[in-house]
């Protein structure tokens, strides 16, 4: 067997390098050939994985492995989806948040991961979110979530503040996220939005957060949407609106304690469907799998699609 490895060495404060080293040691022990492709800049995984796809050419004795964080997996899947590739992905997490791995519960240690991969005869299908701009027709994909407003501001703060690196290094990435939740509440701007679900329009005003979810987790294990789960044939949409400081603090406490925030107030609405049309009436930043997108009055359609995937349990 021949393993093609796409790796982001800097993922998880350079944990990607350590995970790669361990996996190569296991490959050597098991006499498995390994070719390594290293990402060098943001977006590089997209072109690299397309090159790997051309080399694999549907050969059942060749397997594709992605090592990195959720952002690396996001780029890899977008790269394959954009060329309509049927090549399955195997994923070995090395990031800080690891929300995808937390939701899917696949192997995280190189040796049992590789054992599962080489013993698997058939890949499965992973449900992902396909989102289409109804302004320009562009199509992209999300593995975990996409969101607007408060959600994207948290991502922006988390990715730019130096405190994140320190907290991640000492294993407190969840604390880092919660710190930026509080900071984002001080800086956020409210917005309005229309959601069309099964032909029915829902209008929301004074929104601070709107998040399209593919599983419960957002921000290093925070259960934003506890009713969602991976591969449940449904997209979740969580909308927080008309939130003042006392309500925010009560919701935050419930969110951290037992993820019961959806039950304690009418200010948080959760919708579930296989397709949503979302129309923002005020410009907002968007985050997709933890990646910042420019500010715009987004008009998008979200629906489920599938990615071939090796479930390495």
Automatic annotation (TrEMBL):
<keyword id="KW-1208">Phospholipid metabolism</keyword>
<dbReference type="GO" id="GO:0016301">
    <property type="term" value="F:kinase activity"/>
</dbReference>
<protein>
    <submittedName>
        <fullName>Lipid kinase YtlR</fullName>
        <ecNumber>2.7.1.-</ecNumber>
    </submittedName>
</protein>
<dbReference type="InterPro" id="IPR001206">
    <property type="entry name" value="Diacylglycerol_kinase_cat_dom"/>
</dbReference>
<dbReference type="GO" id="GO:0005524">
    <property type="term" value="F:ATP binding"/>
</dbReference>
<dbReference type="InterPro" id="IPR016064">
    <property type="entry name" value="NAD/diacylglycerol_kinase_sf"/>
</dbReference>
<keyword id="KW-0547">Nucleotide-binding</keyword>
<keyword id="KW-0067">ATP-binding</keyword>
<dbReference type="Pfam" id="PF00781">
    <property type="entry name" value="DAGK_cat"/>
</dbReference>
<keyword id="KW-0808">Transferase</keyword>
<dbReference type="InterPro" id="IPR045540">
    <property type="entry name" value="YegS/DAGK_C"/>
</dbReference>
<keyword id="KW-0418">Kinase</keyword>
<dbReference type="GO" id="GO:0008654">
    <property type="term" value="P:phospholipid biosynthetic process"/>
</dbReference>
<feature type="domain" description="DAGKc">
    <location>
        <begin position="1"/>
        <end position="135"/>
    </location>
</feature>
<keyword id="KW-0444">Lipid biosynthesis</keyword>
<comment type="similarity">
    <text>Belongs to the diacylglycerol/lipid kinase family.</text>
</comment>
<keyword id="KW-0443">Lipid metabolism</keyword>
<dbReference type="InterPro" id="IPR017438">
    <property type="entry name" value="ATP-NAD_kinase_N"/>
</dbReference>
<dbReference type="Pfam" id="PF19279">
    <property type="entry name" value="YegS_C"/>
</dbReference>
<keyword id="KW-0594">Phospholipid biosynthesis</keyword>
<dbReference type="InterPro" id="IPR050187">
    <property type="entry name" value="Lipid_Phosphate_FormReg"/>
</dbReference>
């Amino acid at each position: 067997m021949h393993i093609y490895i796409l790796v982001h060495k800097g993922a998880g404060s350079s944990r990607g390098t350590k995970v790669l080293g361990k996996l190569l040691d296991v490959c050597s022990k098991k006499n498995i050939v390994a070719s390594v492709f290293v990402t060098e800049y943001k977006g590089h995984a997209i072109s690299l994985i397309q090159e790997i796809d051309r080399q694999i050419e549907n050969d059942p004795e060749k397997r594709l492995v992605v090592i990195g964080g959720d952002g690396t997996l996001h780029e890899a899947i977008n790269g394959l989806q954009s060329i309509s590739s049927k090549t399955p992905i195997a994923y070995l997490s090395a990031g800080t948040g690891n929300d995808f791995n937390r939701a899917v519960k696949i192997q995280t240690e190189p040796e049992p991961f590789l054992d599962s991969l080489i013993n698997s005869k058939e890949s499965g299908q992973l449900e992902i979110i396909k989102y289409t701009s109804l302004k320009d027709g562009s199509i992209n994909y999300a593995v975990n979530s996409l969101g607007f407003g408060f959600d994207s501001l948290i991502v922006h703060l988390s990715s730019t503040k130096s405190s994140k690196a320190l907290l991640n290094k000492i294993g407190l990435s969840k604390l880092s996220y919660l710190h930026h939740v509080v900071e984002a509440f001080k800086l956020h701007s409210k917005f309005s939005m229309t959601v069309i679900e099964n032909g029915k329009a829902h209008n929301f005003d004074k929104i601070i957060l709107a998040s399209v979810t593919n599983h419960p987790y957002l921000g290093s294990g925070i259960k934003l949407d506890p009713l969602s789960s991976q591969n449940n044939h449904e997209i979740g949409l969580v909308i927080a609106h008309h939130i003042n400081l006392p309500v925010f603090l009560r919701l935050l406490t419930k969110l951290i304690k037992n993820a019961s925030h959806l039950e304690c107030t009418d200010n948080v609405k959760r919708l579930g469907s296989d397709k949503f049309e979302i129309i923002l009436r005020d410009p907002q930043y968007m985050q997709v799998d933890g990646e910042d997108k420019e500010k715009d009055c987004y008009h998008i359609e979200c629906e489920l699609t599938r990615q071939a995937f090796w479930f390495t349990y």
